[in-house]
């Protein structure tokens, strides 16, 4: 019997960003069948055009059943850091903490501290995250132009850093 499923938005391939309405439909299924949701939101800041990110955990009835996953590697372009996080209510966080103490091979505490400092800095939201969106939009558009001019017809992503 299904007990949990994964939602990925923005999807790393093909760049689909679920709308609030689409996420509500998914949430309705989770609530109806008493399912947990792991929400992979590591690309939440890599959005293009008018795309907006909604976390499924913010929808009615979903906080208590959602584990949200984030990543410094994707948000700050430092994938080698291997620093990420989960956001969840206590009853879901406790088992994660218990498992996590045995799973990582090595922890880079200075890098965790660096990421925490950046996340706490108001300039990150004010300056860096808008710059990141603009930077990746320019890169996406340049690659789309090259692919289109070569006769390929790529799917234009709404988010993430991949083009299919």
Question: What do these coordinates show?
Answer:
The protein has 164 residues and is α/β, with parallel strands linked by helices. Helices cover 41% and strands 12% of the residues. The chain is built from five helices and four strands, in the order βαββαβααα. A four-stranded mixed beta sheet has the order 1-2-3-4. α1 (20-32) links the parallel β1 (4-8) and β2 (36-40). The protein is globular and about 50 Å long. 24% of the residues are buried.
Would you kindly provide a brief summary of this structure?
The chain is α/β, with parallel strands linked by helices and 164 residues long. Helix content is 41%, strand content 12%. The chain has five helices and four strands, in the order E-H-E-E-H-E-H-H-H.
Kindly list the characteristics that best describe this protein:
164 residues, alpha/beta, four-stranded mixed beta sheet, globular
């Amino acid at each position: 019997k299904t007990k949990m499923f994964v939602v990925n938005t923005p999807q790393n391939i093909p760049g689909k960003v679920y709308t609030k309405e689409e996420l509500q439909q998914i949430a309705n299924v989770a609530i109806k069948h008493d399912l947990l949701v792991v929400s992979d939101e590591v690309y939440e800041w890599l959005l293009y055009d008018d795309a907006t990110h909604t976390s499924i955990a913010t929808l009615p009835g979903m906080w208590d059943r959602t584990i949200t996953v984030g990543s410094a590697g994707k948000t700050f372009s430092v994938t080698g850091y291997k620093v990420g996080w989960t956001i969840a209510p206590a009853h879901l966080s406790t088992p994660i903490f218990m498992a996590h103490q045995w799973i990582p091979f090595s922890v880079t505490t200075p890098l965790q501290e660096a990421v925490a400092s950046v996340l706490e800095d108001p300039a990150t939201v004010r300056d860096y995250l808008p710059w990141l969106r603009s930077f990746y939009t320019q890169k996406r558009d340049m690659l789309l132009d090259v692919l289109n001019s070569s006769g390929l017809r790529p799917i234009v992503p709404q988010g993430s850093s991949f083009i299919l």
